[in-house]
Amino acid sequence: MLRKHESARFGTQEPDRPTVGKRGAVSTIIAPSSPLTAADRCDRCGAQAYVRVRLLAGGELLFCAHHAKKFDAGLKKVAVEIIDESERLSAMAGPTDAR
Ligand SMILES: [Zn+2]
User: Model confidence over 67-76: pLDDT tens digits?
Assistant: First the structure.
């Protein structure tokens, strides 16, 4: 019933993904998280990232709102912290759905 390999399916353990750069490579230092920008992209689809996920294993993932929601349950198993910046970013993007 409880499959231990369930979270491995997510495949986030690669130590050096080029897209992340140096961040997360050194696990002893946790840099203060800088705000997401338009240059930050979802690891799954390449759309603008709205949610930052800090992993238990070190490093972090970025997701668009769509994928953050889609992987929510799985992320909670492997994440130290999930930082949802969608509100801030949508406010930056413009008053499309505010009022
Ligand atoms: Zn995505």
Answer: 999 999 999 9
Q: CA-CA distance, 68 to 84, in Å (whole number)?
A: 9
Å from CA of 24 to ligand 1 middle = 20
Which tens digits make up the pLDDT trace of 29-50?
Answer: 555 667 899 899 999 999 999 9
Whole-structure pTM value: 0.57
CA 25 to ligand 1 center in whole angstroms: 23
Domain that holds residue 59: 42-94
Q: Would you say residue 49 lies in a domain?
A: yes
**Does residue 24 lie in a domain region?**
no
d(CA 63, CA 79): 13
Q: How many domains does the chain have?
A: 1
